[in-house]
Amino acid sequence: MKILINPLLLSICLLFTFFSNASTQSETKVNFINVNSSEEWETILDKANLSGRLIFVDVYTDWCGYCKMMDKDVFSDSEVAGYLNDNFVSVKLDAETEFGASFTQTYQIEGYPTYVFLDKDENLTGSIGGYNKKEPFLNQSKTIQDKSDLLPELKKKYEKGELTQEETAQFAVLIKDSNSDLAKVVAEELMLKLDAKDFKNSEYAEFFKVFAANTETEFFDYVKNNKEEFKANAGDENFSGYLENVYNATLAAAIMENDINKLSVVTEEVLPIYIENSSELPQAKFVTEKLYYGNVQDAEGYAAVVQKYYASTGKNEEDFWYNQSYEIVEDFATVSSLIDLSITWLDNLVKSEEDYETYALYAYTQGIKGDYEDAKLKAEKAKSLARNEEQKQMADDLLEMISEAASGN
Question: Which of 172, 298, 317, 335 is deepest in the core (most CB within 10 A)?
């Protein structure tokens, strides 16, 4: 099915969800304290010290629809409110204030909403990102709190050299956010002491998920050769989490180093373990290869991957070439060679299929390229093919955007 091209959606990064009272932060039952300055933040630290509670920070922006949804659906819930009020000093922090911008930089926050958990010394003990329903939010919050309660005791034992191996694993995981350098040192020292019998110990499952996310470790070889045993010992969540980390880390390294061999490791070694349903494996490999070639800006490699997939499977997929063109516009709009590739596919497509969606996408893509005259012609053609008033209006919006871009506005 073709995705309806909407220039207003393509020109912004997020879809915003608004409610009837969306112009202001909705009221919640949580005892949130608004913080907009360093002085107000010092008051929060004093409260945390006096009460012995952790600090919970809701980092939001006024335009963030999911932030408003969390207020409406989750923070207004009496169980959530009771839990947060009993265990945390709760803060609302606008990321777009001067203090908020400094806070987000300190804790490397890149998306909204983000929920940050800090101890009284401002050490990061955990975070939750995005919209979460009540139960997942509570479960994650309680897990972070339980780990935070352990940290002071483990830290004292570490300084005295009294940690067991299992406690060392816990300690490394707990401090990875607040002191990543020390966590790395602790993890590397522990890794040298662990052997095959420890791979089967569920006490180390989270440690391996965090610190062994590398295909060149003995632990990955163990997982590759003993998948079902690892799942049984560690649980489905740790199994999926570990392989997700390995996938992301190895693909990121392949992209950063422009290393085709590491891409091969992802598609031929990691994905076959990660993907439970073998019928889904070709699609997973296809998506992964496109991510690689798109990010290294290799249009020739990208085109070859798409053509190969089309020859084997894509012929059976509805609107295949349209969807491939749309993905480039959505994911790689700044890569001119890929935009040219998208235009080539669209040019071939309109020769056999004239419809509103194809011409609207073609116009938008030409606008990205900077060919405004052709973009305008394609947008006018899209308007002539519009099947309803909504499509006509969207075509008019597209024409307006093209005109503004052409004039430099």
Answer: 172
Say what the pLDDT of residue 159 is.
93
User: 146 vs 85, which has greater pLDDT?
Assistant: 85
Listed in sequence order, the residues at least 6 apart from 314 whose beta carbon sits closer than 8 Å to its beta carbon are: 306, 320
59 - beta bridge partners? 93, 114
Domains of the chain: 33-148 (3.40.30.10), 246-406 (1.25.40)
Q: What is the C-alpha separation between 282 and 311, in angstroms, rounded? A: 13
Contacts of 373 (CB under 8 A, 6+ apart): none
98-106 and 38-51 helices, crossing angle to 10°: 60
- Can you read off the two tokens belonging to residue 185? 């040192």
Q: What is the pLDDT of residues 344-372, one digit of tens each?
A: 999 999 998 889 999 999 999 999 999 99
- Encoded amino acid at 158, one letter: Y
pLDDT of residue 211: 92
pTM over 0.90: no
* Tokens of residue 236, six digits: 């489905």
Distance CA 364, CA 349 (A): 15
